[in-house]
Structures are given as structure tokens and as C-alpha cells.
Amino acid sequence: MRVHTVRSGIIAEINMIPLIDVSLILLIIFMVITPFLVQSQIQVALPKASSGTKGGDDNVIKVQLAADGTLTVDGKPVRPARLENELILRFSKAYKKTVLVEADKAVPVERVVQVLDAAKKLGAGKVGIAVKPE
Length: 134
Description:
By secondary structure, the chain is of the alpha/beta class. About 35% of the residues lie in helices and about 20% in strands.
């Protein structure tokens, strides 16, 4: 009687299935979390008003002025001296842009007027100031 012995060798393959599973799960997690991360990064305490209209979000450039002096355009931090250049870049991408200023109630009116003036000077279709309803 002959006994056959099978030589077992080392398997030198990498199992790709767990790697693909983990990659797909991470992709799904990042896709779900991304909209929350894209929201505005600075907190602005808007002033209250009894009258106001709900504006559409299409073709709107949001300029935020925080109480600590931070200025952002569509969530991107901008130095005040570069505001006009940043608005020019935004205006060149679409026709008839609307500029919405979200200013903290502690921000001096002069800074808000400077932003509105720059927007109108560069040809904004509409300008507005965001308020919180009472």
C-alpha cells in the first residue's frame, strides 16, 4: 500500500476581498459625512428681524463676517483686502450673481457697507443681508 503525501506550500497571495470591503465602507462613510463638513465653518449670530423673505440658494454668493473679524466667501477664508478679487472670480463663473451678507450682530455697520459696496461696484445682480426671523 502506498501513501500519498501532499506537500502543502505557502500561499503567497493577498486576499483582496477584505481590503475592498473596508475601502467601500470608508467611501460610504465619507460620502455621508461630507455634507456636514461643507457647511459654514464660522458661527455668525444673525440679527433678528420681523420681516424678511426666504431667498433661493441658486447662484448665491455667501459672504460671512464674524465678530472676531473673520471674513469668508462661500466658506473659504479671505483677507479683507482680497475680497474684491474673490468676488470677481465668483462673478466670472456664472451670470447674474446674488450676494448675501451674513454678518454677526457685533460687526460694525461700516464693514457690512464695505462688502455691499464692493459687490455692487463689481456688478452683482442683487445684494442682501441675512437675518434670523423673530
